[in-house]
Write a structure and sequence with these properties.
The complex is a heterodimer of chains A (350) and B (181). Chain A has 14 helices and two strands, in the order ααααββαααααααααα. Chain A is mainly alpha-helical. Chain A has one domain. In chain A, strand 1 and strand 2 form a beta hairpin. Chain B has 181 residues and is mainly α. Helix content of chain B is 73%, strand content 0%. Chain B is built from six helices and no strands. Chain B is extended, with a radius of gyration of 22 Å. Chain B starts with a helix and ends in a 12-residue tail after the last helix. The chains are: A mainly alpha (350), B mainly alpha (181).
Chain lengths: 350, 181
């Protein structure tokens, strides 16, 4: 029996030594859990906000019966969705049908991992940074992961064996490829200004002046392309209710249906955070007495409200107009903006 | 008593090996699978494994670009075309084709054996400072100084290819007139 306790003791010593020397590992794991849980619990609150605000915009009340201010409504909805029967039609490809919503949610959560939302602070002599990971090419990472999110929609369209789903999947892939170009190119002018792909460096470069004042056109283009990337109205062609029933998630029920919405709302938060970091100065409060994280959160919530506002204001645009708008208006404007930015930078800061 | 550094090295070697084996398995899946959708999915998995390998060797920028360009853009077009044509399973009946494919596979395996025996893989020669290794700056400096001509020629080639595709795809008949507005 003695050798067992000996082995256990040695293992315990090793674990203690390992953890003592690798505190960043523990901190990183905790941060990962906090960010993942936090971003997922933002979704019901956002659904509530959207339904209440949409109600106000359309001169009606919105959900106000369950709980104070209708705040119990998203919880009731979640419970309903969890207990609903999951129906899969017999002609669907079962594996891909299950895989598609998972891809959407996972890519949405992973994309948020590199978003910084505050300045580092000290706890127990340990510097805790307010971001999941400080990747050197952070902005490229976000674009790469959001690009992978398209697969969820395309696979849902392919696996459902339904013409409306297929059309929705096709539309979403075409739309997102087109608008990703605009998104990347308008971010490129900010990368030119800061000379870095790192999101933290970009925020530090805006300590005196947010980039929206220097690059208003790039901000506009980025925001429009961001709405199109998250499939929000007026660019929600992949799920156009009047023509495609519900697009790529026509055949989905219950929680799998809800996962597509989770992905969409998390992408909305990520996109708002990205706009805040690139153009609105991140967590810089510009003289206002606010904690960095509060300043950041307020900016993000404001942008989310703008997302909802746009949805209840504009009608959906036609599909061919969407493509023409992306390729013939936004893309040339982006290239022009990039050219001017590059030229001015070379002239003023050689 | 085990050293922590050796444990980390061992763990990293294991991860690299696992990712490499997954990449090989995924590429086998591309060849062996009969449904085009799953073939494309295996190819995406292979691309992601390659990106992970780049990441494990500290080539962060290359890894991200690999995912954006290949897994993000190229493979979406593959899936787009599969969705347009209808992803039906192919029926294998011709044994001649199968034997041809088998011969091809064995040739490739032979080549792999040859390249493995000829010599070990070598370190990259160059004077990249260690703190710049794998970043966008290092790659940009290399591309726009040492390899500028080749880089510009390659971009010209891609432009020619794009223009050529548009010329080929342009319909010879007049497009349908639609009422505008």
């Amino acid at each position: 029996m003695e050798w067992i306790t000996e082995i256990l003791n040695a293992t315990w010593d090793f674990i203690v030594l390992f953890l003592n020397e690798n505190i960043p590992l523990i901190v990183g794991s905790v941060k990962a859990v906090v960010i993942a849980v936090g971003i997922m619990s933002v979704v019901p609150a956002l659904v509530w906000l959207e339904r209440r605000l949409m109600g106000r915009f359309q001169v009606r009340l919105g959900p106000n019966r369950v709980g104070p201010l209708g705040f119990g409504q998203p919880m009731a909805d979640t419970v309903k969705l969890l207990f609903k029967e999951s129906i899969i039609q017999s002609s669907a490809d079962k594996f891909l049908f299950h895989l598609a919503p998972a891809v959407v949610v996972i890519t949405a959560i992973v994309g948020f991992a590199v978003i910084p939302f505050g300045e580092p602070f000290e706890v127990f002599g340990q510097s805790i940074e307010m971001w999941g990971a400080n990747v050197n090419s952070g902005i490229l990472f976000v674009f790469a992961i959001s690009g992978m999110g398209i697969y969820g929609m395309v696979l849902a369209g392919l696996a459902s064996n339904n013409k409306y789903s297929l059309m929705g999947g096709l539309r979403s892939s075409a739309q997102m490829i087109s608008y990703e170009l605009t998104l990347g190119l308008s971010a490129l002018s900010i990368i030119l200004l800061t000379g870095s792909l790192n999101l933290v460096d970009m925020v530090k470069a805006q300590e005196t002046l947010p980039f929206i004042l220097i690059q208003p056109l790039a901000f506009l283009l980025f925001f429009i392309a961001g709405i199109a990337e998250t499939n929000r109205a007026p660019f929600d062609l992949p799920e156009a209710e009047q023509e495609l029933v519900a697009g790529f998630h026509t055949e989905y029920t219950g929680m799998k249906f809800a996962m597509f919405f989770m992905g969409e709302y998390i992408n909305m938060v990520t996109m708002s955070a990205l706009v805040t970091l690139l153009f609105l100065g991140g967590w810089n409060a510009y003289g206002l007495p606010l904690w960095p994280i509060v300043a950041f959160a307020l900016k993000v919530i404001f942008l989310l409200c703008v997302f909802i506002w746009l949805r209840s204001t504009f009608p959906r645009i036609r599909y061919d107009r969407l493509m023409t708008f992306g390729w013939k208006v936004l893309l040339p404007l982006c290239l022009l903006n990039l050219l001017v930015t590059g030229t001015l930078k070379v002239i003023w800061f050689p | 008593m085990l050293e922590i550094a050796t444990v980390f090295d061992f763990a990293q070697d294991t991860v690299i090996l696992a990712v490499g084996v997954t990449a090989v398995l995924a590429s086998l899946g591309v060849v062996l699978c009969s449904s085009p959708i799953y073939c494309a999915l295996y190819l995406i998995g292979h691309m992601i494994c390659l990106a992970l390998l780049f990441l494990l060797y500290n080539a962060e920028f290359l890894a991200v670009v690999q995912i954006i360009v290949y897994a993000g853009a190229v493979m979406i077009l593959f899936l787009f075309i599969i969705a347009l044509l209808g992803g039906k399973k192919e029926v294998q009946e011709n044994s001649l084709h199968r034997s041809l494919a088998l011969a091809f596979v064995f040739t490739l395996l032979g080549e792999l054996y040859l390249s493995a025996t000829v010599g070990p893989t070598q370190q990259v020669h160059g004077e990249v400072p260690p703190e710049l290794f794998g970043t966008a700056k290092a790659i940009g400096l290399e591309l726009f100084s040492k390899h500028l001509v080749a880089f510009e020629l390659a971009s010209g080639l891609l432009l020619v290819a794009a223009v050529g595709v548009i010329c080929l795809a342009k319909f010879s008949f007049a497009p349908l007139r639609r009422r505008v507005r």
